[in-house]
Each structure stands twice: as C-alpha cells, then as structure tokens.
Design brief:
Blueprint: H1 2-18, E1 27-30, E2 35-37, E3 48-53, H2 58-78, E4 81-86, H3 96-103, E5 108-111, H4 116-120, E6 128-132, E7 138-143, H5 149-160
Parallel strand pairs: 3-4, 4-5
Antiparallel strand pairs: 1-2, 1-5, 3-6, 6-7
Helix pairs in contact: 2-5
C-alpha cells in the first residue's frame, strides 16, 4: 500500500513540474550501435513507456522483468510500447545486449551512453520511468521501483489510452 502512495505522489509532483514536456532532440544508440534520434520515438498515437535502467541496477532489472511477464497482454489491452533506455557507459555498455537477450525482453532497447536524454529529462537515479501520451508529451513520471509498481504503471497507461 505504501508503494502505491509513493507512486501517486511522485507522479503528481512530476506532472506539476514537467507538464507538456516533449522528448528533446538528442540521440541514443540502438543495440547495433546505430544512432537514433529520440524525438522519432512513436507508437501510432498510443502511449509509450520509457524505462531508464542499467545493467548493474538490480531494481531496474526487477522492474523490466516484472513488466516482461505481462508485456504481451499490456500491448493487447492498451497498445502501449515499452522502450528500455540503458544509461550504461563505455565500461558497462558491452553487457546490454547479453542482458536483453538472456532475459528474452521484447522491448525496443537503446543506450543513452552519454546520458544526454537522462540529463535533459532531469533524471537523477535509475530505475526511472517516463510515460508519454499518444502525442509524445510526457504525461507521467515515476522514480524507483518496488514490487507491484508495474500494476500502477499499467493503470496509468490504460487511463492515457482512454480505457
């Protein structure tokens, strides 16, 4: 119950401070090393979850694993797309591909190797989740992860999808 209260409060504060924010014009690397502009992220007018994580962050892995268990259902119900953005630097980025493949994650995965996106969104720690509404505007934010937070995340996405 405490996690739900923290989640709601974190979102409310974030919405007041960052409403109407769009993704900045910065680039990240895909798993093949190709540069991709984040302002091209889209989902045909449906919500997008951007989960900031790192290979060395156990709560990050736990959150992405918890979502992975029901991700197919989430897509069917709400049309949501999850984009996992690693903040691993040159020392640890070699492990991104193996973590993703060993866990069978079906997410789009990118590396914010120089933390341009991370910093431009005012993020201080991972795990950190940003939810974009259908037009790509930041609708909600959530810092940290506690087991069960994924259910609140799904409810937020369903609300944005009009469900």
């Amino acid at each position: 119950m405490m996690a739900a209260a923290l989640f709601c409060c974190t979102i409310a504060v974030a919405q007041e401070n960052k409403s109407q924010q769009k993704l900045p014009n910065v680039q990240v690397k895909d798993l093949e090393g190709k540069m991709v502009s984040v302002n091209t992220f889209s989902n045909n007018g449906k919500p997008i979850i951007i989960s900031f994580w790192a290979t060395w962050c156990k709560p990050c892995i736990s959150e992405l694993e918890s979502i992975a268990d029901d991700y197919d259902n989430w897509k069917k119900v709400s049309g949501v797309k999850l984009i996992a953005v690693s903040i691993d630097d040159a020392r640890t980025s070699a492990g991104i591909k193996s973590v993703v493949s060993s866990r069978g994650w079906q997410y789009e995965v990118y590396n914010d190797y120089n933390k341009d996106l991370y910093r431009s969104l005012g993020i201080a720690n991972v795990p950190y989740t940003v939810i974009l509404n259908g037009d790509g505007t930041v609708a909600e934010r959530h810092a940290g992860y506690n087991p069960g937070d994924e259910y609140h995340l799904l409810e937020a996405v369903k609300k944005l999808a009009g469900l």
